[in-house]
Design a protein that fits this description.
Pdz3 Domain; 30 strands; eight-stranded antiparallel sheet; about 575 residues; single chain; 3 domains; alpha+beta; about 35% helix
Amino acid sequence: MLVFVFLGVSIFVHELGHFLAARWRGLKVDRFSIGFGPRLFGWKGKGGTDYRISLLPLGGYVALPQLADMEGIEGKASEPKEALPTPSFTDKVCVLLAGATFNFLFAIVVACVLWQVGQPVAPETQTNVVGYVAAEMSPEGDARAVPSPAFEAGILPGDKILKIDGVNVSRFDEITNTIMTGTGRAPDGRPQAVFTIERDGKIFDTDVFPVLVRINAVSGDRVRKVGISPAQELVVGRVLEKSPAQAAGLLPGDEILKLDGKPLYGLQGILEKTREGAAVSLTIKRGDELIEKTVTPQEVPVTLPMLQTYLSKDATQSAFSLFALENGRALALFSIDDEALLSQVDLENAVLLESVSGQKVSTPEQYLAALAAAKGSAVKLEILTTDGSVGLTLPADARAELQPHTLWTIGVEFARSLKIVHRTPFEQVADVVNITWRTLSSLVSPSSDVGVSMLSGPVGILRVYHQLLDVDLRLVLWFTVLLNINLAILNLLPLPVLDGGHIVFALFEKLRGRPIPQRVLGTVNGVFMLLLLGMILYVTFFDSRRWQGDSRLENITLERARHYVSPSFGQEETTQK
């Protein structure tokens, strides 16, 4: 219910602006409606104004017959426009600007509240220092990898990104948004961005060629990415029992600054080094003291036993692994370790094993029995994806075992906590205006990769509100600031039906010296209203697809998460993967 309240309040504030300005300027108000379409309930107020809640929650309107002929959208006026006094140009502009003005004012009020209570953010989003550069990326979410654009451009951990395409950036959320909404293109048509980097006190520019990465398997949304993640503080939150870290004397609260004498900017740096199994030297900050510790990683199971499939009898590297879904209804892919084997399969989908040599299987025992029954012959697997079935042929000497996944680790869990920032209302509003401007610029630019289908309509907005309410009410306040400024800016666009379009009509009439014929106004507004409703339905369709894709990914992620276990140290032997 709170979700509808927050969205409804933002719409109400906008229409209240129009209503109060109309009353102030002496214009007749026929209706004050939240939503479009048939009236659900309401009441008649003084002056005959019909206050109502309407069926379609796609916005709202204040019916002002003296201002514009919107009979096809808002219903028949109580009095013909000709029988009412003609409003002046000033009357029209004041009333039309009032809706956006009230949204801005409301956004500032909410921003002031957020300034005082503080906004929770992930600490790593507040830096512009690169923490990790991936060597490869998988644009389609499957096993097919391409070189990371940042890696190819020579960006290094510790680099500070100052600008992208000449736009100043100081936080990683700004960096991500600026890359996504970029419009640069290389002569060969590839997306291109110019990064201004600071490294060891020197500032230089480098060309980076982002790749389009699919972020939703159902909606097909693709955004520009370059393969970098932000720097993060590595503060030990917990040292696991009998772990190498405990043996080396690490304590909760220790901050790891260096690895083998080199500055450490993120967790990935430790994972990449320790997975080799060799001893590592850590430089630790404990209070005001710097301490050197040598730690030897240990290989331990990190999942429950699951089906590991090897392509030959003597292979030590699993080609892929399967796990049983809850209630034993099917086997699903947990990981793909051989990129060439299932390069067309996307793990973001609920990818299920359908059959082995034509035989339906749903349990590990059935899978092992089906492979054993092959008796030295090639085995044909059918893997079910959302796009259909994918065939896979295993060689004759393929084998499978129930084994856990293992990981070389030193045995620490790092502290994860939100940071509370108190940003001034001006900073908050300026941020949202910049984001909105970049997004609109990308939408109209033929060189960008941002399309109308990636916008959010009422369904998407309600979904975001619902998600944020489950996390922190302060995030809801932040989104309310963003939504109201977006409503203000979008309503001022010079398009018919929108407030900005009505202002353009009023200005044209002022310069022309006589009103635009009502038939012309009614036709233009009617056509654009149909186009607007069509666009809302279009983005709502993709909102629903996006929701479906996210839900599917969340479900399969939860299923996989059930198979992870906390590392257990102190065992003499660890089963090899």
